[in-house]
Design a protein that fits this description.
Oligomer: single chain
Distance between the termini: 31 Å
Structural class: alpha+beta
Number of strands: 24
Number of domains: 1
């Protein structure tokens, strides 16, 4: 793969920014010098770096890097801390995807830790008694929405391939924090206050709320000895402790005994779960090679389709976030999402025409539908080679506050991008073993048939629901890492990541500026612009071209690292509370 594109790729240009947050530097243990932490202008470090969604998670990852650990070691340590400090977004009760680059060989691998449906799942599981789709929260809260967690299995597989430190070592920061406690952040406190369903689970109510039912305020120290015990068991025995024995029994009991929507998960479902190594999807974008996660995630293919269609347009000639640029990117996005909705689902259950969707000729033919002066409206799926019948599922619910992303580059030049999730905010709201359980099964199409034909992404036993998670790696002509990037944000993830790639590669923005650039996207249902930003000024011009414009909130959580000639440069989304940190 590296040799195939080496002649097409050019070195990434120098980007630089530096900012220090002394308060975080004081918190980092075992340091050889003060860490360089992201601020308004990003972060820069010569040796290694991690960008994660919470300072304590980034700190845990940096500690592993300083001990000589690999990028995978740092990611595992950070993710265990995120289970504790960012429970609304991800954790061991959910799943995720990881894209890994090995510097020595140039190999890119992708790891699928997506949840699977239990044997009790069926295509009509989210229809009501009248045969109509349930409301999203009516389906998401409770036991029937919980998929078999896959995150720990995936991390164990990646560690077996690329870990350097002992597995138990990676759990030490999270165990210590769970026992000593951490302060509730303002963001978590606000979510707990607004949350309507979490109080219904006794364990979650006792943990997150006061006796009168009010949310514990920001600054409250939360201790989670139950999670510490869970992590100790996994640290000692590996992923088997999650899928067999007391932890597995507690998960099953919580799902089957849920007060709302009790599910049918059994111990056998947990026991048979396996993480999967899949072939990444890669393609050229101008002078770079961009790689993403293939199905059951739609993120990699859809991002590459958008970029492929934009190859014929000189985006660098337009100012960032200008009406011309937003128009072109949005039109390519609408076309790509039409294909996404029609063709992408779990490849173990349907044939996904990945090569046809990414074929250069096919993308050129799709790009010819983009008219610079006029929006094309609602797009229909194309006809890629090796396609099966195309079906458009019902629109997905907007679920943007959950999910998390972290990016890591280690001292040896190995890199990873990992996006993980428990689906919507606080997942199913069920808590077992000190952690929240996902509601990922609501990523299946609620309506199993459309126009009388089965929808590709319908529920079935053992099936993995389609995802939009888009961990992304970019390589240069020397075969070395240029960028590791990703974001939370539901199906909008694809738009957030695509915008940031274009901002860094075409518009030469710094990592932090590329992340902070206002978000814009089109999921084939209108053009969405981030409210309260300079993009509102171009709304009129877009409407004049025929765009149906909608303003959206600040829901991205991008975390990225650029490898530049001067060292590593990190960026963390100021819309959330993450940081990039390294030395």
């Amino acid at each position: 793969m590296r040799r195939m594109f080496r002649r097409r790729l050019m070195p990434f240009r120098r980007l630089c920014a530096l900012a220090l947050l002394p308060w975080l530097a004081a918190c980092v243990a075992e340091q050889t010098g003060p860490p360089i932490v992201s601020g308004a202008s990003g972060a820069r470090a010569p040796n290694h770096m991690i960008a994660a969604a919470h300072p304590l998670a980034a700190e845990a990852g940096l500690k592993m890097l300083r001990r000589g650990g690999s990028a995978v070691d740092a990611a595992i340590a950070a993710q265990m801390v995120l289970t504790l400090v960012e429970p609304q977004s991800s954790g061991i009760g959910g799943g995720g995807f990881m894209l890994h680059f090995e510097a020595a060989s140039g190999a890119i691998e992708s790891y699928d830790g997506r949840e699977t449906a239990p044997a009790s799942a069926h295509p009509r599981m989210f229809l009501d008694a009248a045969g109509k789709p349930k409301g999203f929260h009516a389906a998401a809260v409770g036991g029937s929405s919980v998929g078999v967690p896959g995150l720990v299995r995936m991390l164990e597989m990646a560690h077996q391939d690329h870990g350097k430190l002992a597995w138990p070592t990676l759990f030490e920061p999270a165990i210590a924090l769970a026992e000593a406690g951490f302060e509730i952040s303002p963001r978590l406190a606000g979510m707990l206050t607004r949350e309507r369903h979490l109080r219904e689970t006794p364990a979650a109510r006792a943990y997150f709320y006061r006796a009168d039912g009010s949310a514990k305020p920001a600054g409250t120290v939360l201790r989670n000895p139950e999670l510490a015990a869970t992590l100790r068991a996994i640290a000692k025995s590996g992923a088997i402790a999650m899928h067999h024995g007391p932890i597995a029994r507690e998960i099953v009991a919580m799902v089957r005994g849920a007060a709302r929507n009790p599910g049918g998960m059994r111990l056998a479902d947990l026991a048979r779960y396996r993480a999967v190594k899949r072939k990444p999807v890669c393609g050229p974008y101008r002078k770079w090679l961009v790689c993403g996660m293939g199905p059951p995630s739609s993120g990699g293919i859809t991002t590459l389709q958008i970029l492929g269609m934009l190859q014929r347009f000189d985006l660098a000639a337009y100012p960032p976030a200008s009406a011309d640029a937003v128009h072109l990117v949005s039109e390519a996005s609408a076309l790509a999402f039409a294909d996404r909705n029609a063709y992408i689902a779990d490849p173990d259950f349907i044939e996904v025409p990945a090569s046809g969707l990414l074929n250069a000729g096919y993308l050129r033919s799709r790009a010819r539908q983009i008219v610079p002066a006029k929006a094309g409206g609602r797009r229909k799926p194309g006809t890629p080679e090796r396609r099966k019948a195309a079906h458009r599922p019902p629109q997905e619910a907007d679920k943007g506050h959950s999910t998390t992303h972290l990016s890591v580059v280690d001292r040896d030049g190995n890199a990873l991008a990992m996006t993980s999730s428990i689906e919507t905010v606080f997942g199913s709201r069920l808590m077992a073993g000190g952690f929240l359980l996902n509601n990922q099964l609501t990523d299946f199409a609620f309506r199993p048939r459309h126009l009388g034909v089965p929808v590709a992404n319908h529920a079935a036993p053992g099936k993995r629901p389609r995802s939009s998670m888009s961990p992304t790696l970019v390589l240069g002509d020397d075969g070395k890492i240029v960028m590791a990037l990703g974001s939370p944000g539901g199906s909008r993830i694809i738009g957030y990541v695509t915008k940031t790639l274009i901002a860094a590669l075409d518009w030469k923005l710094s990592m932090q500026d590329a992340i902070d650039l206002p978000n814009f996207l089109n999921r084939n249902r209108g053009t969405e612009l981030e409210k309260g930003t300079r993009l509102e000024a171009v709304a009129g011009a877009l409407k004049a071209r025929g765009h149906r414009v909608k303003l959206i909130g600040r829901q991205s959580g991008l975390q990225g690292i650029l490898a530049t000639p001067g060292g590593l440069q990190g960026g963390a989304d100021s819309r959330r509370e993450g940081v990039a940190i390294g030395d």
